[in-house]
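Field log, afternoon session.

UNIT: design team B
ACTIVITY: writing a sequence onto a fixed backbone
BACKBONE:
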């Protein structure tokens, strides 16, 4: 072989994104907006994008802003309400809306109504203690500019005007209360993900590989990641080389992270929680409800199992869901394998797993109770929110799969977390997202953090800073202490996204 016949070295891609869900889509679009010369390759094991947790039917589509989710406003031992987490979640969602609004204005997301709609976010409780909690929560949240406009009522007639299905047939002797935020949103994250990938795919330097499963990693002294990838249609295996890798494989992230052998991955485990909904199939009932109504979670239940009676807008159609009912499956992905949980157990995480298990017996009891539920039990749960529900109007559907993070903890051995955890290597060449809550709503804030950690030098340049502020005008600033900025960015986002402070809701009624 002469020197001219030497095989050329395999190309090195700047960025590999594993998984075609909302997280990879957000990161890909963000990075390409910051540097259009970056080369990106996406590998997805399924034959479609957004077919796992990000699909509209697999998640609840709540634009999580802490307007209605009671787990973000815990009561302190002295009876006061802690709103710090609510402020953070609300701020993160404002960041997402600003980013999507910019993409609408710049062209990549031409039609915001294909993925986001206004729908009132409501909390509903009954019993004197819960009514008192909701009253205090409302008063506490009004101190924050992010919650201006939150309404509270204990008047059954007012609540019935807002949510007739929830009040019809209810015992009038039981005290009830509700809060209502007119500017809540329903987001079709599946549709959003598909729009983002459609835009990304059309960019120069972007490759897309559906039906390709990433199986293993190797890193040599040149610092380049080698990914072993199987083409699931042909069984062919190939090696892809990348400078930076994002593992956005949803429930499939943990097993992949373990294979990277980075020290930061040690001690993480995962606990799968599956979900089911009741989906309403009676158009007359669907037409009579116009809100996302969240209640208090049952004792021992994980926070993401808060029951909700949920108006959705999916593919141009109004829908109504109730749930989720939790369940247990050893799969990490809805389309995964029953051996996922067992294969994720390693020497480094067995201790945290056992400790977390021993410390969360309430959760174990709750999950067993949920798994053993009969159709009558499910109807009884539905009737707590819709007393005159007819079970014949509802059918059971399987929701997406979540993998809760279990972390090594010095004091307790292992703790079960209900949030998300970004794991990055010390040199910033690989990052992985574990956990699923609050989830897709906070994708933009999570990816902005990733960019600042893994691309720190470039993120600090005036060019990237200016572009970041152009896409997210509040970038680098807090909204919770800045009423003027909150009002300004909300107004801008809502105009671009055609969210109108409740006008859409009135028109649909
Ligand atoms: C029941 C339920 C309700 C929820 N409700 C809400 C809500 O109301 N609001 C909200 O904001 N969030 C909600 N979430 C969370 C939200 O859905 C997730 O946080 C989000 O969709 C995760 O996106 P992702 O891109 O990380 O993962 P996914 O959308 O799951 O995408 C991961 C992709 O990686 C692929 N993959 C896995 N392994 C490999 C591999 N080895 N090689 C190649 N590809 C691979 C998978 O096939 C999948 O397509 C909910 C989740 C569930 C389950």
């Amino acid at each position: 072989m002469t020197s001219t016949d030497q095989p050329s070295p395999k190309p090195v891609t700047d960025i590999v994104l594993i998984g075609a869900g909302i997280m990879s889509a957000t990161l890909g679009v963000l990075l390409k907006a910051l540097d259009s010369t970056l080369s990106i390759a996406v590998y997805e094991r399924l034959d479609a994008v957004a077919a796992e947790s990000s699909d509209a039917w697999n998640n609840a589509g709540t634009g999580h802003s802490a307007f209605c989710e009671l787990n973000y406003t815990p009561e302190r031992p002295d009876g006061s309400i802690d709103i710090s987490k609510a402020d953070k979640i609300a701020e993160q969602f404002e960041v997402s809306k600003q980013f999507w609004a910019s993409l609408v204005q710049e062209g990549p997301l031409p039609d915001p109504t294909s993925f986001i709609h206004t729908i009132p976010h409501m909390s509903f409780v009954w019993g004197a203690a819960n009514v008192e909690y909701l009253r205090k929560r409302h008063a506490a949240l009004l101190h924050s500019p992010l919650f201006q406009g939150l309404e509270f009522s204990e008047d059954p007639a007012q609540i019935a005007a807002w949510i007739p299905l929830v009040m019809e047939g209810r015992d009038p002797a039981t005290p009830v209360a509700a809060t209502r935020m007119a500017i809540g949103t329903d987001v079709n994250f599946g549709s959003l993900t598909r729009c983002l990938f459609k835009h990304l795919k059309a960019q120069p330097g972007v490759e897309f590989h559906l039906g390709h499963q990433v199986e293993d990693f190797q890193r040599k002294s040149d610092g380049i990641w080698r990914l072993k990838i199987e083409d699931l249609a042909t069984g062919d295996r190939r090696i892809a080389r990348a400078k930076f890798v994002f593992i956005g494989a949803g429930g499939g992230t943990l097993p992949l992270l373990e294979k990277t052998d980075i020290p930061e991955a040690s001690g993480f485990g995962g606990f799968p929680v599956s979900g089911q909904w009741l989906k309403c199939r009676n158009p007359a009932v669907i037409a009579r409800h116009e809100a996302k109504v969240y209640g208090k979670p049952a004792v021992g239940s994980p926070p993401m199992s808060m029951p909700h009676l949920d108006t959705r807008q999916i593919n141009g159609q109004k829908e109504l869901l109730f749930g989720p009912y939790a369940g247990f499956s050893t799969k990490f992905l809805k389309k995964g394998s029953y051996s996922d949980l067992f294969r994720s157990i390693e020497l480094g995480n067995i201790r945290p797993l056992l400790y977390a298990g021993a410390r969360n017996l309430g959760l174990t009891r709750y999950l067993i109770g949920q798994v053993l539920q009969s159709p009558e039990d499910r109807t009884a749960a539905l009737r707590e929110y819709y007393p005159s529900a007819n079970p014949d109007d509802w059918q059971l559907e399987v929701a997406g799969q979540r993998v809760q993070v279990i972390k090594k903890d010095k004091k307790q051995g292992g703790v079960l977390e209900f949030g998300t955890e970004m794991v990055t290597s010390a040199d910033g060449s690989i990052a992985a997202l574990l956990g699923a809550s609050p989830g897709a709503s906070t994708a933009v804030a999570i990816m902005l953090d990733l960019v600042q950690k893994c691309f720190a030098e470039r993120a600090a340049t005036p060019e990237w800073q200016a572009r970041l502020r152009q896409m997210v005008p509040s970038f680098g600033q807090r909204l919770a202490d800045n009423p003027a900025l909150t009002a300004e960015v909300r107004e801008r986002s809502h105009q671009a996204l055609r969210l109108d402070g409740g006008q859409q809701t009135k028109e649909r009624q």
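LOG NOTE: The chain has a mean pLDDT of 90.
NEXT ACTIVITY: expression trials, pending approval
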